[in-house]
Amino acid sequence: MNRTVGRLLVLCVGILIALGAFGVARLAGASCSPFTRAACVRVLFLGNSYTYVNDLPAVFRDIARAGGQNVETSMVANGGETLANHAASPASVNAISGSRWQFVVLQEQSEIPSLEADRQGQMYPAARVLVGIVRAAGATPILLQTWAHRDGWPDHGLDYGAMQAAVNQGYGAIGAELGVAVAPAGQAWQTVVQQDPSVVLWQDDGSHPSAAGTYLVACVLYTRIFGATPIGISATEGLSADLARTLQAAAIQH
């Protein structure tokens, strides 16, 4: 092999590697597609493990794209992170201010909204700060109402229904005060529990979402953000078509 041929081979291999890396980056990324006329809708998620387990932003993005939306998502979420943690975190604040988002989804730690003292002392002050930052950045805040633990919170005398009612009240009150829309995922969750208890929405820990639970939450967010029904969307994220349709229908009932 002469030097010229050798150099050409090296160049071709380099190009293939570069194209491969570019392809992987595009597949792994969450950017809007440049190959559609649909306007780019950019959504940032601030939460904790309830957001990153099963990659809620990616499931939402898949559903939205299957519904004809052009969506980009990003996420700041660490295990157990509260809205107060996010409000005090340079990473979270910079994520909100450092890019042009249309929507920022705010998800509180699962137990805080169910206790009045924790709402007043932690959730509400943090929500006020974060909503102010989101609006100053030109984005629309959305509060992601979470779901109660499968067995409630016995240490505080709350069964599943009582805990969910308290969570609903907690998000509803601060949403009304600040004029912020609430994505009623916990209420949709309760609808599924009541209508078809055979659907497994929780993981074995009775707290984190199963794949079906995450899919339901993503459908609720799709409805709240786009004002459209997810019923009939083809993206099922590995769920059966029947189960996906059950969850799609529950998402629009609140």
In short:
The protein has 254 residues and is an alpha/beta fold. It contains 10 helices and 5 strands.
Radius of gyration, whole Å: 21 Å
Low-confidence stretches: 1-29
Number of domains: 2
Tell me the overall shape.
Answer: globular
Q: Helices and strands: which structural class? A: alpha/beta
The averaged pLDDT comes out at: 89
Strand content: 5-15%
* Major beta-sheet overview: 5 strands, parallel
Q: State the CATH superfamily name of the largest domain.
A: SGNH hydrolase
**CATH domain class name of the largest domain:** Alpha Beta
Number of helices: 10
CATH topology of the largest domain: Rossmann fold
Number of strands: 5
Strand order of the largest sheet: 2-1-3-4-5
Order of helices and strands: HEHHEHHEHEHEHHH
Question: What's the N-to-C terminus distance?
Answer: 70 Å
Helical residue percent band: 40-55%
Q: Which architecture name of the largest domain does CATH use?
A: 3-Layer(aba) Sandwich
